[in-house]
Design brief:
- Belongs to the phD/YefM antitoxin family.
- InterPro entries: YefM-like_sf (IPR036165).
- By secondary structure, the protein is α+β, with helices and mostly antiparallel strands.
- The protein has three helices and three strands, in the order βαββαα.
- Strand 2 and strand 3 form a beta hairpin.
Amino acid sequence: MSAVPKIQPVPPVDQLHRTPASDVKKLGWRGVMRQLQTQGPVLVTNHQQPEAVILPVQAYAALLARAQHTADPAEATLEALRRRFDERLAVLNTPEAGDRLRGLMDGPARLGGEVQAGASY
């Protein structure tokens, strides 16, 4: 498993340095890049509403790697749970499932003084 790159935490949107979209046009790309280097991630606004966040490429790559790193194990775990759940429920789709359930419910419970739990009945 590859290591997830270390990154400086990106502050919440409401704490980012703001610049209006008109400044992006006025300052030009070089001016925005200077802001990025001196002040960190830049929140671009339009009529004071957030529209975009400009991050350094390294920060974006690290965020993407971290998201992929955390998503893959979670998805694999969920898929394994789905498969096990579907396998257990497949018993209910067999032709004799109704008869087996009725037979189980009609007869007396034979627990022998113990509570029984498990994957089968």
